[in-house]
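We both want to read discrete structure tokens more fluently, so let's practise on a single case. Once you have written the record down, we can walk along the chain together.
***
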Amino acid sequence: MPRIVFEKYQGNGNDFIIIDSRAFDFHKEFLLNNINAYDLCERNFGIGADGIIFVLNAIEKDNDVNMVIYNSDNSEAEMCGNGIRCLIQYLNDNSLDNYQKKEYRIETKAGLKVSTYQSNKIRVNMGKPIFENNLIPTSISEKIKGIPAQLFETNNFSFIGYSCSMGNPHLVFFVDNLKNIDIKNIGPFFEKNDYFPQKTNVHFCKIINKKNIEVLVWERGAGATLACGTGACAVHSIAFRLGYCAKESTIKLPGGILNIEWSDENDDVYMTGDAKKVFSGKYDY
């Protein structure tokens, strides 16, 4: 695997190296040769990205592709909201007959994700938020309005953290002032906290009003990033259960906005946003 052909995409500034492994199994070569995702994602000596997405042939014939994703620290992720939008935009851009599909069915480690594509907007059914402790997973035992909740204290930080899963674990804090959050110092503390055996994504949120929430992101395996799609869904779901937001909200992230819809525990969460190609190239490993 001396040369890797890739394309790079970003969704709200969350950027990914996309490697199409349907014709030639780059993913198999990646595993067999013990290639480290960190080397490709490193921004000074590599391509530079928050993660790598391998496009594999779908397991089920009715689906489009299978998505395998690695964080920049070489850990495999279950799912990524911004990543799946980047993948869908990639599939749309590289349609052999220039036909733009309206629906895409993507297999992920967190299950099948179905999305619609229209007017360069990608609306993804992200599934139901999970609040069961053992499924997140988290050892937090207390609950507030059915949400696992725990008071966390460190370095003059004292707030209740709420947890849920969107196929991957999330810890959400609602704070008074985001400017007071030293995310690079406290982000790792929460990511690797003992309450989360598989680590967790962390989000610091400011409720602007019932329709708008501002969020800072610390991603598991990637660090401080400009956006997190599954995180935006987790933030909205928890905020709605707590009565902080309406059934539709705009999540303002450092890299842009995502529109999230969820109103009832029986409904799926829908995320709407876009994604764009940055560049393509060949990487000599």
In short: Residues 92 and 98 are 8 Å apart (CA to CA). The two ends are 7 Å apart (CA to CA). The chain has a mean pLDDT of 94. The longest strand covers residues 3-11.
